Amino acid sequence: MPKQLRRREEEEEDQEPEAEEEEGDEDEEEEAGPGKKGKKRQRSAFIDDAAEEDSDEDEDEDGPSRRRKRSNFVDVEAAEDEAEEDDDDDEEDVGGTFLDDEGEQPTAAELNAARQAHLSREHRLPQDKDMSYEEIDRFVKERFGGREDMGDMDEDGEGGGGAVNQQALLPTSRDPRLWLVECKSGCEREAVVCLLQKAHNLAAAGNPLQIRSAYMVDHLRGYVYIEAIKESHVTDAIRGLRMIRVSKGAKQVPEKEMVDAITISQTAKSTLETGGWVRIRAGAYKEDLGQLFSVDHSVQRAVVKVVPRVDFAEISKRQKEGGRAAPFGRQATGNARPMPRAFKHEEANSHGVLVEKRRDAYDAEISYFIGSRRFRDGYELRDVSFKGLRAEEALPPLEEIQRFNQVGQSTEEQADGSNILGDAILTGGTMAPIVKFSKGDKVIVTEGDLRNMVGTITVVRDGGKNVDVLPDMEGLEAVPMSASAVEKWFASGDHVKVMSGLSEGKTGMVVRVEDHLCILLADHSREELRVFSRNLQEISDAATAVGEETHAFIGYEMHDLVQLATGDVVGVIVDIGKDTCRVLTNQATSDTPDVRVCRPAELKQKLMARRMEAPDKFGNQINTGDLVDVKQGSYLEGKSGTVKYIWRGKLFLQSKEFPGLGGFACISSNVVYVRGGSNRGARSAAGLSMLGMRSPAYLGTPSRDAFSAFGNGFGSMPQSPNMGGPAPVMDRGYGGGSGSYGGGRGGGYGGRGGGRRLAQGQRVDISKGPYKGYKGRVVSVTDTAARLELDAQYKTVTVKMGDIRGMVVKESQADLMGNGFGGHGSRTPSHQPGNRTPGHFGSATPMHPSMTPGHTGLAGSATPLHDPAWAGSQTPAHPSTTPSHPSLDGGYASSPRGFPGTPGRDVWGQAPTPASGYGSSMPAGTPQTFSTPYSPPAATPAQTPGMGAGMGSTPALVADTPAFAADTPAFAAPTPMLDTPGFGDGQTPGLDGLTPGLNGGYTPGGTPSFGPGTGITTPAMGLPGTPSLDGGYSLAPSSNGGAAANWSMYKGLAVRLPDGRSGEVLQALPNGTCSIALGEMDESDSLHISSDYATVEQAAQELSQVSLHKDNHVRVLSGPLSGQEGSVFIVQGDHVVVKIAGDVKSMAAREVGRLVRAS
Amino acid sequence: MFYRLILYKDVELHPRFFGPNMRDTLKAKVTAEVEGTVSGKYGFIAAVPDVVDYGRGIIREGTGFATFRVKYLCIVMRPVKGEVMDCVVTSVNKVGFFAEAGPLNIFVSNHLIPEDFEFNTTDDTQFVTTDASTRIRQGTEVRVRIVGTRTDLTEIFCVATIKEDFLGVVGDPT
């Protein structure tokens, strides 16, 4: 380096002889021979060298040459002026002599003339205030004439004109040169200011400096640039300035490097600049984000705006203790680092901290001071050395900027949330963000001639520093550009992925673009995200479908059900970020969802809860995938969603109706009800039948949840196929097996309990309390009470569950039953057995067909089961299944049946289940849907077992008769019970059936419940009111409980088929199947059967009675007189008076069946 | 936009259906399997009006099932960027509203709703113009322009705008 300089010095010496030429023409030097040029070119690295080199050059080394050089330009006048200023430089005298020496050089006059011409050109204008317009114009042309043509080009130039223009601005050989002079490090600015002052003073004195300009650049310490035509002008100018090392002389900047010399390099610029973002390296604010408030490069310090971390208590303490000395001294050890917060002087005052409010010496703005700390607008201004700062390479994360800006917002009254981001962007925009472009990115050009052009990146070069952009406009070719000149560009509707920041990895669709910011709608969480567009990347649809996500949650995916490491918490992942995920847990309350942010370590495992189920509000079973409505008591009330997961009574629902969280919500299963599908049907059907059957149980025990049991059975019975098919042989083993199955299920359900037993709209009796004796319709139900609309009074009252006794079936429900819902069907099987049982006889209702489930022959039906033998056979199965079963085995005695009050309750619960199982199957095939065989009868303890068994076997039963027959014997055994007085008493149809069992052996307790109430209410019961078909009484009702067992009594009856046809029962098989000769009813309601009648087979339960008229021949189907025949004397409502063997008996219409002809 | 396409579907048929009504069975099967599904490539398959060709079944060894390559005609619905369509609002929240056009879910962000609409929850969750003359709530019929679509395996999701001329509320059921 020194060598080069030296060479340069020598060169200058060589030029001496030609000095005069140079003087006249400033271009001379440039036009000198090639040799010289070459030499100058050797200096090409001049600027850099100069910047780096130390001033190790020996000042005196080339003293004379320098002097000589300078002498060329020394002005006599100037030299005189400057003499005084020159304190340490004695060279000017020498210079003076030199001037005289230059004899061969142009004469002083010539020189002067040239210079005057020059000066006049430069300076006259401002002085000649009275210049005319034309003169000014001429002056301008003269002075800037060289650029005129460029201006023209500008006007008509298109596109390419700019570059040419730019070229034209480059310095030419005719322009002044740049000179570099050394000065004291840190005094560059001062030097320039001094030069300015000097120029001003001298100009005022009529002896202006001849330099054109002087400037310094912050990043180049120890040097000042001066623009002048000749070096001597420079030396003249700097002479006498103490901060400039005049003795070092001026170094010329080669023409080619002049542009570079005044261009502030990008790297130098980006480091620290007012408004830029930095981080503090150490101290209380370590790693805090700060914004540069002001920067002083000369002293290498900056004022940084940070969010204050102030511990007022601590300060206050110190101020009290030791005055105000160093209130911000070392942090008290052990003290936690104060949280960053906006500074509020009121807060400081409240802690008793002395706060001074005064104008800042720096810019005269009002600030608050605590000791030496300065606060303004909620921020603290700290004076920090550059060394204590680290420039942010890119714009800090949006969230951090927001937090930072909020501090300012919070202290300003006019705080307006909307510009939080605006500020962030504005201030952030000053930084050159590091953007990673990749091929295919859409970009918009932000700088240069192509500004605002949108294109696609085709090539990324130089590690991302340069890119080729293919403009979107057709017919254009890719343009190479600097990466800093382009920005990513998105339009609404683009599908993008967030590449960095808190939301990294998320995908979404752009809904709006605001400058540098994109607003996205996240795909999964359906939330809005605000992200800098530089952090986004467009993705194809396919990419999301595949869904490769880069997050720390390996093995987990969005919307997985996971178990958390803490406690018994499970939840659904609703959001996955880079390092954390959000989990909607099952701890939610009815008001708010519980969302937790978890790290990977906090997730214990992924749960596979595929086959979970839960009861809904009405006890219906909810399975995953079901659609449920949210009933009440939740912020989701009135909405509905799809069940995604079920976990211990909590449902995780998904619906787009739910706000946020990916449309997920967690809710307790008992505030929803299942919508649609078979579940609903099951519910109603089951509900009905339940009522019937249950009622007994009901009354007594609230715990039972028939519904659920039914529902369950419904959906799930695998056995149904068997049902449908004929099962020719009743195989006990088989039956037992199935029974066990049912039992198993039942057990499960039984445990649940707690559902509601009443359905809205049902009619019930009130048996206790102030409203005792009233009947009403259920308006709403809770676990403990029901609101009833009374029939007798226009009033809605609340009644405790325990006060409600029987149930009255609504017509519609009865119809349902008639339709043979699954539930009923299930029972049927058991029914039949009842019927068959010889023992049952009387009770056996052949006719029962229509009988409502509960009713029926329940008793009968149950009975069979009772049979020890039967039971025995099944027992094996039972034990295995239901715990309660054992009791069954032991003896019927323990009425598992769940009488009211009886421990059997639970059992009962189980028992039904099997039934439900049937139910499911029933629909499949068995015609004999009806009834709940079970019902009351079943209820009897004795029967219970039967029930279970019956149920179990049912499939087989259904299948039919043959099997039954086999069983019958068993029935017989039970039958005795039927005969029991209770039975007899229980004239009430329903009752009877059931009661027998009860009365006989069963606890009285049970009976009552059964009793009238039950009988009557049970849908099956066939109240007078329950018109099952055509207004006629259903046969079932008419049949007595006891009679139910004997279908043979149907023979010869006129009946109505479910489809409306009517006919005569030709034959009734023991299994309840009747063969019917079809006939026609005429206007007088008498049946005519043609000779070529068709016969159909129909389950007796499905047959209904035809209406009765005076003188009709009838057969008594139930009660003590069952089997007797007579004729109708009077029909009165639902009672008939029948003449039997000369005796007149009054009985319920449903107890008698009309015979086609007297036998 | 709706398209009429001819697509293929491999259908397996149980041997018990081999017989006179086999084609009907096949058609029913194709219809059942295909209608209402989303194909990422084509969009929603809205209807299968006809089967063009049942192909020749190939009996699979071992199972007895026959595989038919059924060529069927279908109507597909595929939303296109820029398309204008009418839809019905299904839910409204503060970030915008969701709407449905048949099987299509559409989201209109509040950024894409004209400024004179304001979100309001006092009466109903809805967007109401400042003069309260127009409101967007559940059930409102709106005309939107689709600005972006995303196709998943099972659904197509669109972002749409009503912030343009001639877009917005076209009918209110109440």
TrEMBL record, chain A:
Residues 10-32, 49-62, 77-103 have a biased composition (Acidic residues). Transmembrane segments: none annotated. GO terms for molecular function: mRNA binding. Its main location: nucleus. Residues 175-265 form the NusG-like N-terminal domain. Residues 873-887 have a biased composition (Low complexity). GO terms for cellular component: DSIF complex. GO terms for biological process: regulation of DNA-templated transcription elongation; regulation of transcription by RNA polymerase II; transcription elongation by RNA polymerase II. It comes from the Eukaryota. InterPro entries: KOW (IPR005824), KOW_Spt5_1 (IPR041973), KOW_Spt5_2 (IPR041975), KOW_Spt5_3 (IPR041976), KOW_Spt5_4 (IPR041977), KOW_Spt5_5 (IPR041978), KOWx_Spt5 (IPR057936), NGN-domain (IPR005100). Residues 119-132 have a biased composition (Basic and acidic residues). Residues 271-298, 436-463, 489-516, 621-649, 757-784, 1107-1134 form the KOW domain. It is found in: Nucleus. CDD domains: KOW_Spt5_1, KOW_Spt5_3, KOW_Spt5_4, NGN_Euk. Residues 1-103, 113-132, 144-168, 718-737, 816-939 are annotated as: Disordered. Pfam families: KOW1_SPT5, KOW2_Spt5, KOW4_SPT5, KOW5_SPT5, KOWx_SPT5, Spt5-NGN, Spt5_N. Keywords: Nucleus, Transcription. The keyword Iron does not apply. Belongs to the SPT5 family. This is Transcription elongation factor SPT5. It comes from Apatococcus lobatus.
From TrEMBL, chain B:
GO terms for biological process: positive regulation of nuclear-transcribed mRNA poly(A) tail shortening; positive regulation of translational initiation; transcription initiation at RNA polymerase II promoter. Keywords: DNA-directed RNA polymerase, Nucleus, Transcription. One of its GO terms (cellular component) is RNA polymerase II, core complex. It comes from the Eukaryota. Its main location: nucleus. Gene3D superfamilies: Nucleic acid-binding proteins, RNA polymerase Rpb7-like, N-terminal domain. Residues 79-156 form the S1 motif domain. It is found in: Nucleus. SUPFAM superfamilies: N-terminal, heterodimerisation domain of RBP7 (RpoE) (SSF88798), Nucleic acid-binding proteins (SSF50249). PANTHER family: DNA-DIRECTED RNA POLYMERASE II SUBUNIT RPB7 (PTHR12709:SF4), DNA-DIRECTED RNA POLYMERASE II, III (PTHR12709). This is DNA-directed RNA polymerase II subunit RPB7. It comes from Apatococcus lobatus.
